[in-house]
Amino acid sequence: MVEPVTRDGILIQARGLVKRFGDFTAVDGIDVDVRAGEAFGFLGPNGAGKSSTMRMVGCVSPPTDGELQIMGMDPRRDGPAIRARLGVCPQLDNLDPELTVRENLTTYARYFGIPRRVARERAAELLDFVQLAERAGSKVEPLSGGMKRRLTIARAMVNEPDIVLLDEPTTGLDPQARHLVWERLFRLKQQGVTLVLTTHYMDEAEQLCDRLVVMDGGRIVAEGSPRTLIERYSTREVVELRFAGETQEAFAGKLDGLAERIEVLPDRILLYVTDGDGAVAEVHARALTPASVLVRRSSLEDVFLHLTGRTLVD
Ligand SMILES: Nc1ncnc2c1ncn2[C@@H]1O[C@H](COP(=O)(O)OP(=O)(O)OP(=O)(O)O)[C@@H](O)[C@H]1O
């Protein structure tokens, strides 16, 4: 395989990247560097501009403005050459229901000019990898959502890509199916494949991403590893209190001085603290009796809330 052309190990570089649809700006001047071998995430709520960014990187939607270099090439000029070295797993499964599981891979391989024999071998290996070997001869339709997603991931690997783009790889899957997809993606990462994914699940971002950018309204609001983001923008622990009866605001005033920061949401109050159990003891010492109390560690959801004042999933 040709060595990827990189600048200092950077496979994807965006500077001031913009995507507009008419008057509407979906991606508003973002700077991104994705390094070879890392799992890089775009985390943000619906409408943040993640898919629009992925489509520009996938060379299916031209940038309106700014610079974009992928493996040292320019998508405006070198789209076909870039696409040949990308694997793409779109948000909606676009598998061919007329074909069998195996044929979905071998037919796709033909678009890349892969000889039939090689395609069959590769399809067998990939079906093994995504644990669908037993379904190779069956049609796509009866597969579960998780199986279809794994097949789409296998299809994205057919051309042995340098970069795999995954748009919301586990949206719509049940917890067990999600874990299986994560586990396979984790293995790809271990094999040195560069993964670029979008997600609005903070646990997915925490599980898979070495580095990520947090997007909101077309802009990047923070960047770093999940751990550094949590350390920078949150506290060690979070206490979630739910009060029954009146609105949560009615209780917030009674919690003054209990936490480094307090967030009041419509259904709960979050106390950002170092010592969760200590804070709970203090709540009870003030004769307050929440209907439920949960002490947990901080997550990327807290980072997003701190940066934007909103939750990731409404
Ligand atoms: N082809 C289009 N024409 C007009 N507006 C668009 C188009 N594609 C996306 N948008 C708008 O751009 C904004 C960003 O959309 P985008 O799909 O990039 O967001 P996202 O972060 O990926 O969210 P989602 O998880 O819903 O896909 C949205 O407000 C969307 O309605």
UniProtKB/TrEMBL annotation:
This is ABC transporter. It holds the Pfam family ABC_tran. It is a peripheral membrane protein. SUPFAM superfamilies: P-loop containing nucleoside triphosphate hydrolases. The keyword Nucleotide-binding applies. InterPro entries: AAA+_ATPase, ABC_transporter-like_ATP-bd, ABC_transporter-like_CS, ABC_transporter_ATP-binding, P-loop_NTPase. It is found in: Cell membrane. Belongs to the ABC transporter superfamily.
